[in-house]
Design goal:
The chain is α/β, with parallel strands linked by helices and 493 residues long. The chain starts with a helix and ends in a 9-residue tail after the last helix. The protein folds into 3 domains: 90 residues, no CATH class; 253 residues, Leucine-rich repeat, LRR (right-handed beta-alpha superhelix) (Alpha-Beta Horseshoe); 100 residues, no CATH class. The relative contact order is 0.05.
């Protein structure tokens, strides 16, 4: 009985050993076919296409801020390296810097499914040419996307879709040529959108219509030549719009009428030569308007009637021939405030009575910027040699008075013989060559010219000379200005 049981026990033992060996073999096969996933913060292979630095802590699931460098071109969408991000599911800030041309040609969306806490992602210097449909979709935690200095040419419909917490989207320094309708979809919290330094020439109607909470839109340094009000549909909350450094030549009526809450409009460094009378209608909240470095020759009457809250106006370096009290009247009271400014330098405005309002504004404003701008404003002197001589001598005498005398209103009339010659009816042409003109050729500082000497074009009825200021007091007031004013000064935007 006992002898028959021994062979049975031995058989069972042998079967157990065979099964154990089989299980070990299966485990080895599985291990070979499924290699261990490496920690993305601890990639030690020097030949790896990706190396990441995790700030503060590199342990599994402890990294919060990670910066990665992509090397050795040719990394593919299916590359197993992307699965290594599953070891750091708590990353909140992730940046990719591409160090080899062609090393990254796509947005690595595969890794995004592992990073459910990701708030910021940045990709720079890649060879990405297109952001495909739904590339960024359903990332409920993402707050900021930055794609700077890539090679992006095309944005597709729904490229950025259903990102409820996205606040900032930066697409600067790419090659984007067109902004397509519905590229930005269900971005209910987006506040800042930047397209600086692309090749944008076309903005489709309604391109931003879903961005109902957008506050800032930068489209500067592009190739935009045409604007339509439909381009800005849906941007009722926008406060700042930068269209500087484009190729805009014309502003049509009501072109900005969708932008009810706009406070800052930057149109400098364009080719604008025509602004319709009602171009700015609807901008009741506008505080800052930059039109400097354009081709404006004249302004439509009542142009600023629709922006009566304007505090800052920059019209420097245009080709304006006239800017009268009627032009400035809608915003005159605003220019009296401390935070106001008006810049008109670099135009072709003649020294005549149309600019007499500057004398009044200079003495009434509480703004240092406005006052300094007016004190340094240079206008074009008349071609009348006698008038030019008188004005030049006036400037010269005030400078002389400032440097050599301490006079008051009473003895200002008793300046030396050279000063008395200012108001003589005729000047010997032989002395004209000795006259020193401080400004550029045929230019004079307006506020150093007595209002009584400002000529009035006889073919136009004007009322700009309603403000008068005694020439003697004026000369005394401005000699300190001449002594203290630098040759140039910096304008703040």
């Amino acid at each position: 009985m006992r002898a028959s049981k021994a062979p049975a026990a031995l058989l069972l033992l042998l079967l157990a050993l065979v099964e154990l060996h089989a299980n070990r073999s299966n485990d080895e096969v599985k291990e070979k076919s499924s290699p261990r996933i490496m920690n993305v913060c601890d990639i030690r292979d020097r030949n790896s296409k990706l190396h990441c630095y995790c700030e503060l802590n590199q342990e599994i699931n402890r990294a919060v801020k990670t910066e990665c460098w992509v090397f050795n071109g040719g990394i593919e969408k299916a590359d197993p390296i992307w699965t290594s991000f599953s070891t750091q599911t708590n990353i909140e800030t992730l940046a990719f810097n591409v160090r080899a041309d062609g090393a990254l040609k796509f947005v690595p969306t595969k890794l995004l499914r592992y990073l459910q806490k990701l708030k910021k992602i940045s990709i720079k210097f890649s060879s990405i040419t297109e952001v495909e449909e739904n590339t960024f979709v359903n990332l409920t935690s993402i707050e900021e996307i930055t794609m700077i200095k890539n090679q992006i040419e095309h944005l597709n419909k729904h490229s950025f879709n259903n990102l409820p917490n996205l606040v900032v989207l930066i697409l600067d320094e790419n090659n984007i040529k067109e902004i397509v309708t519905d590229t930005f979809f269900k971005l209910t919290n987006l506040q800042k959108l930047y397209f600086t330094s692309n090749n944008v020439s076309v903005i489709q109607d309604g391109a931003f219509r879903h961005l109902v909470n957008l506050l800032e839109l930068e489209l500067d340094k592009n190739n935009i030549s045409e604007l339509r009000k439909e381009c800005f549909e849906g941007l009722a909350k926008l406060k700042r719009l930068d269209l500087s450094h484009n190729k805009i030549s014309l502003l049509n009526s009501f072109v900005f009428t969708e932008l009810w809450n706009l406070e800052s409009l930057l149109l400098d460094y364009n080719e604008i030569s025509i602004v319709a009378q009602r171009s700015f209608d609807g901008l009741s909240q506008l505080k800052k308007l930059n039109l400097n470095h354009n081709n404006l020759i004249i302004l439509a009457g009542g142009l600023f009637a629709g922006v009566r809250g304007l505090l800052g106006l920059d019209l420097r370096f245009n080709k304006l021939k006239r800017f009268t009290s009627d032009d400035v009247k809608p915003i005159y009271d605003n220019l009296l405030k401390e935070n106001s400014y008006i810049y008109l330098e670099g135009n072709e405005l003649p020294c005549d009575c149309h600019l007499a309002w500057m004398h009044k504004l200079r003495h009434e404003t509480r703004s240092t910027k406005t006052r300094t701008s007016l004190e340094n404003f240079a206008c074009k002197l008349s071609t009348d040699l006698v008038l030019n001589s008188q004005l030049a001598l006036f400037e010269k005498s005030v400078i002389s008075a400032n440097n050599n005398y301490n006079v008051d209103n009473k003895n200002l009339e008793n300046l030396d013989d050279n000063t008395d010659d200012i108001f003589q009816d005729e000047i010997d042409e032989n002395n004209l060559q000795e006259i020193e003109i401080v400004k550029k050729e045929n230019e004079g500082t307006l506020l150093q010219i007595p209002i009584d000497l400002l000529p009035c074009p006889q073919d136009v009825k004007v009322t700009d000379r309603t403000y008068t200021y005694p020439s003697q007091n004026e000369a005394k007031d401005y000699r300190n200005l001449i002594h203290s004013s630098p040759g140039s000064f910096l304008y703040a935007n």
